[in-house]
Amino acid sequence: MARTRERRRVLRVPRLRPVPAAAAALVIGAAGLVAADALRDPSGAAPASADSAVVPVGAGSYTDVRPEGEPGPSDQNGDAVEPKVTDGFTGPAPTNEWWSSLIYQRYPDNPYGENLFAHPFSFRPHSGGLEVGYPQEHQLVGDGLKYEYPHTADLTMGATGLDAPRTEVADSGDWTVTAQWEGGGTLRTTIGQGLPFAYAETEGADPEVAFEGAPEVWQSEGGVVGASVGGRHYALFAPSGAEWARSGDTFTAAGADHYSVAVLPDPGDLDAFAPYAHSFVTDSRVEYSYDEAAAELTTTYRLTTEPKEGTEDGTLMALYPHQWENADDPLTDLAYASPRGEMRVVDGPEFTTSLTTQGLMPSLPTAEGADEERMRALIDEELNHEDPFRGGDDTYWNGKALGRLAQLVPIADSIGYTEGRDGLLELVKGRLEDWLTAGEGGRQFHYDSTWGTVLGYPDSFGAADQINDHDFHYGYFVQAAAVVARYDRDWAAEDAWGGMVRMLIRDVAETDPESDMFPRLRSFSPYAGHGWASGHAGFAAGNNQESSSEGMHFAAATAHFGAATGDEELRDLGVFLHTTQASTVTRYWQDAGGGTFPDDFGHDVVGMVWGDGGDYRIWWDGGDEEHYGINYLPITASSLYLGYDPEHAAAMHASLEERLGGQPEIWRDVHWEHQALSDGPGALARFEEQWSSYEPEAGESKAHTYQWVSTLAGAGTVDTSVTADTAHYAVFDDGGTKTYTAFNPGTAPLEVAFSDGTTMGLEPGELGTTTS
């Protein structure tokens, strides 16, 4: 039964406008993420004046002048940095990209950038242009703890006489970037994830390609050269009428103003690439369409191309495994190696994938037979603690505390503990309002117009001085706000506290192509299918993502906040982010289905995915429980994706216990909750044995852990074969007995239809359950 029309959200790189010194805030209205003429407080007062440090947003506010003594985006020495862009680049600077070291100079002695892993290509910029490689063989490093496909330079794309003092960003798309070098001539290159071509334009100099060693030339005719280095095959394409002249290992195309380089799976594939050699990519964008009634997410990845000669405007695109396994388009026989597994190629400038959307529940139901008195007592331990926030006072640790307390609200409500529910809501509201109101010192958010980002103070883990981890941190605030909105929609109204919450969402996942305040999808890389944690990506291994589960948490929080406030476009954004990442997380972090990790990599999980591979290690000297658990926490009802394949979830838990030689001792609650996705009764038994003596993980509580494991012990494992015509549902199977649950976030009654014919009527705000 379709209740809402299918909606499409176009995500494309904007032609951005300059940001004024005191940027006017933007808000998200009922139609989605749009610019507002002005922000007003509840009384209707005008925004703060341009010279004021405090900008009101509804009942909240942020500063547009950084609080004294607090850090902003900096280099390794602590000195302020500005985006490294050309004069023609306007608008907020993208960060947290696979290519961010081009725009964010982390190291004072490197004005060019670090290794860039676009797949299938790898690159490294330097004064003479752009090194190009194709890492097709892996190696194990760090005593076998990391597998990597390292950058090895095969050639440099350059221009005659080029000696640039730095590299700058001229333009970018959703997964492409154009870099520029000036010095003895001008070189502009466009590169991107999944592009088997790298494109170059020159001005005041001739195209030049210098191989690192003597190439084996197997094709040389006019403007086309085919050559191999170390078993890797390349084609150089100059314009018609130009010829590549060789001098030693360097090829020059005199009089030409553009060229392209293709990496070929095999020399015999040259003819498949030649027709597209002069069809230059100028933009990349992703579009998604969420059909709620059909439980389907359709995503189109589209390149804009411009023929530099002739009329051909097509191209080739190399797809990651999570894309080609779900692609609606025919695949060619062309394929590449990559750190994510085999990439396969489509012929054309776009392709579409289709994914089933499993539901996003805001909380789980409480099982019949659960010990409600104990649950109530455990809630009281949190509510009446001398410090419910446990001392954490920065955006991450205070955020985790907010998430921990907010998760208890629906649990208290489910057992009829109204007093506890309301007490928890007041705690959460009070701390959220504290953060969402700027003032002298204390907790607050600041908008940095130089980088187009919201920075929270106090900060941690480089969130302010490196623009790291914003989805990890802010997801807890958004989730807590979604819980408040579930019970008090007025609190989350745009002219109340919702405006500031939406500002945090937009900092992480802006979609408005005309935004002057934020770059596109900062913390989500749509082609990769997941986020990148580092703002600057200043590493030889490229960018990295450690806690994929906290990225998923932000996605779910966005969907829940949108649903709780009646903003379906915002809800759909969260569904898009969550569903897409669900297709990558267990695959690339846990090798689900095989095909990602090399056969000689002796680990079942990686703690971090890097541009060049995967690493079992994490950012601190943690134990095995943390290496696994960092990509599980926080456990919420949106964590069910970890159990979409119960056999795989069981294998992951067994793998950890095999490493440990017994049960987890660190983050026991997180691992019990993960175990419950494949063995609820076993997880409940372990909780019962140890519940009075263990120390909860910082974002967890005994009340929540007990509710989670007891619910799954009775309901069984996630059943993905049954869907529903709502965004908020889950189905479980226990030996053939199915448990259906759904939530109605709206203000009118809702009839939910499951794909197997089961139906469920829900009143506004009701979370319902039935079995069959």
TrEMBL record:
Entries under InterPro entries matching the protein: Endo-beta-glucanase (IPR005200), GH81_C (IPR040720)
Enzyme class: hydrolase
Enzyme Commission no: 3.2.1.39
Pfam families referenced in this protein's UniProt entry, alphabetically: Glyco_hydro81C
Keyword annotations: Carbohydrate metabolism, Cell wall biogenesis/degradation, Glycosidase, Hydrolase, Polysaccharide degradation, Signal
Catalyzed chemical reaction(s): Hydrolysis of (1->3)-beta-D-glucosidic linkages in (1->3)-beta-D-glucans
Protein family membership: Belongs to the glycosyl hydrolase 81 family.
Protein name: glucan endo-1,3-beta-D-glucosidase
Organism: Nocardiopsis endophytica
